Amino acid sequence: VYRYNVSTQPEHTEGHGKKTPAEPHFLFIPTLHGPQPVCPSLFTEQTITPLKNTKHLLVSAFMDQRVKGFDVRIIGMFHRTSIQPLHCLYCCSSHLGGITPAKVLQHADHFGFPFGATDVMCQIPKNCEASHVTLLTQPSTEDVSDLSWIPIKNMKTSGKEEKMLNFTVCISNLFGDYSNVLQFAQTLEMYRLLGVNRVVIYNTSCGPDLDRLLQSYAQEGFLEVVPWPIDKHMNPSRGWHFPEHGGDIHYFGQLTTLNECIYRSMERSRYVLLNDIDEIVMPYKHDNLMSLMDALQPQHPDVGVFLIENHIFPKKHFDPSGKFHLPQWVGVPGINILEHIYREDPARNIYHPYKMIVQPRLVEQTSVHEVLKYFGKNYKVPLDVCRLIHVRVALRGSLTMEQLNVDKRLWDFQKNLISNVDKVLGKLEFLVT
């Protein structure tokens, strides 16, 4: 017999405009009567797992007790018009545990696509040392033989604490035949010079040359490559605007991967940077990111989200001196960021995006350019302190050279950057000799 009841209290809003879900009121703790069956052995190692009897996809589960009344947060991609009541079933010390009602929280940003990033919140039954969780559409365990169980991450385990990193960069998605090898290597080496400890990237597909580079960085431990076969489960969009681009979900599930990366990094990184592979969060008054945050955080102790304004360096404009048009890089596919020193001023009369440095423990849900739910405050970092260097196609293509700003901040790192990039590319035999 399974017995439960959940109150239907509405969501309420706490400080700084953050909405928090209503606390579930359990009148009865769900229990299993009689001998407890052993958990099925179908523990999935996949990063995307279809949920039986639904259109939904599960990604990962994390211990998260920051919202009162809940213990576990399951991150997924749900079909937004097919949400039904769900129930959490746990594997407790290799035996099935009780069933608890689930609360489904759709993220506010979905850009009109049929699928959107979704959280499922559950409570772990008493006396259950939960290791894995699955979702049920009916509160019954009559047939659990073909359920897919996902591990619960971020569990506190004695004697196995991982060293806390200072900075992790979360890069949402690689897809198509992306093969910008030179810019990728330059960007990762700039991250390293700025004090980043780990980069996490979600890979659907990329070109063979870039794949070799990814594997090299992954082998040394600096890069964590998360397989992201979303195209095997749905038709992901290559754009953000549903009427224009079509498809099932925004940018190959970008919002889901950014949220998953925050939770993946929550217990192992003090700060998380949320930006794209062609963007560098660049301090302008400090030599590295740690010095930047050591200055900002004491001034703003309640801030958990630091907003960094995006500044585009059009790839069509080159440094006229040609001093960084290096012969050894001529045959390497991709953009040489050192050659692009002209910076656009944003058009401030229209929406202008930011990227973020966040304290992951203070973030509950994020979008691409802003955090949706959080526990602290946010702060826009002044442009003279830090800004985003974004080498890409011009956004304001009508601007003349005279209307652009000369910005050679990257050149301050030229010696170490060139040397480090040469070592990486030379090891993989990309360099022209």
Automatic annotation (TrEMBL):
Transmembrane region(s): none
Cellular compartments annotated: Membrane
Annotated InterPro entries: Glyco_transf_92 (IPR008166)
Domain of life: Eukaryota
GO MF term set: glycosyltransferase activity
Membrane listed as a keyword: yes
Protein name: Glycosyltransferase family 92 protein
Species of provenance: Nothobranchius furzeri (Turquoise killifish)
